[in-house]
Amino acid sequence: MSAAGRELLMKAVVFNRHGDSGVMEMSEVPVPEVPDGWVLVRVNGSSINHLDFTVRSGSAGIPVHFPHIGGCDAAGTVAALGRGATGYREGEAVVVNPGIGCGNCPACRMGEDPLCEDFRILGEHMNGSFAEFVSVPARNLKRMPQGFSLVKAAASPLVYLTAWHALVGRAGIRFGERVLVTGGSGGVSAAAIQIAKLFDANVVATTRKEEKADALRRIGADDVIVTAGEGWGKNYLDRAGINGFDIVIDSVGSALWKDSIRSLSKGGRFLNYGRTSGGHVSTDLSFIFWKQLQIIGSTMGNPDEFDTVMNLIFNRRLDPVVDRVFSLREAGLAQDYVESAGQIGKVVLLVGEDSH
Ligand SMILES: [Zn+2]
After folding, report:
1. Which residues, other chains included, contact 206 with Cβ-Cβ below 8 Å and sequence gap of 6+?
2. What pLDDT, in 10s, does the model give residues 194-251?
3. Measured in angstroms, how far is the CA atom of residue 244 from the centroid of ligand 1?
4. Which end of the chain has less Cβ packing within 10 Å, N or C?
5. What is the pTM of this model?
6. Domains in the chain, ordered, with CATH?
7. d(CA 335, ligand 1 centre) in Å
């Protein structure tokens, strides 16, 4: 976007090197380009995701171009349409699907964008939404109903899409199954608890912090396991008098792996969408073949799933859990808060007048 040949600038939180949250600074950078078929969105709200600090610290191992703008989620209004972008008008309220495929390859044409060889995530492989404007393909937008909470909309996209794709798309959750959600207070986990309850599942959540148990029950967990050391899985199964869970949905990784695998019932499915405690695990294969387990990887979700899960949120069948709201300039503080696992659910950033 340019006016009279001059580059327009916007406020954004950027980092010029990897490191702790101290590397993030409010800066003025050019408003992003809007390629053909893309749309410029004025960001009013974003939110913090675990991905943000793995990209910032460099531990995600993804090469980024500095200065980099993080931020996967965006809710805002259409500011400008690129050539050939249709279906939206300037000023319309929208939310953004942060998973961006090329739009042309067989995977994208089948609607399976996360399988696209060029699949990118907003704020991870490209500049994101900790900024006044973000540029995304028109196919990544969804209209937001009038009067819907900006904060809840900004909190929703990545975590609900990830949880829906994992539980519904990948695990094929069936009504009434037993589901174990590890690391229950994280954003995806809170979404997964609610989605599993839509399927009338019996949902058990794990947490390391006893004081979070009540909040997890309020989100919808039928029971809570406080994980301390090994053996929590078997202890719970003995106590509950059950053989195991049909589904374990996990992004904690190595710290909970052993008990998670042993907690599965025969024919159970282990859904993994991350590895916050470490990605290297080992297991006795006898558990896998004898119990006929499935180990299933899951990343983000496809456009149809985004549409479905956002409709459930807009229709209030799913209710995003928002812990705290910060302003854009407090992005580093907000990331530290989430990284210290102090929150239940989502932490939102408001982008607007107060962020200057
Ligand atoms: Zn593609």
Report:
1. 180, 181, 182, 183, 184, 224, 225, 226, 227, 232, 256
2. 999 999 999 999 999 999 999 999 999 999 999 988 999 999 999 999 999 999 999 9
3. 38
4. C
5. 0.95
6. 2-156+320-355 (3.90.180.10), 161-297 (3.90.180.10)
7. 31
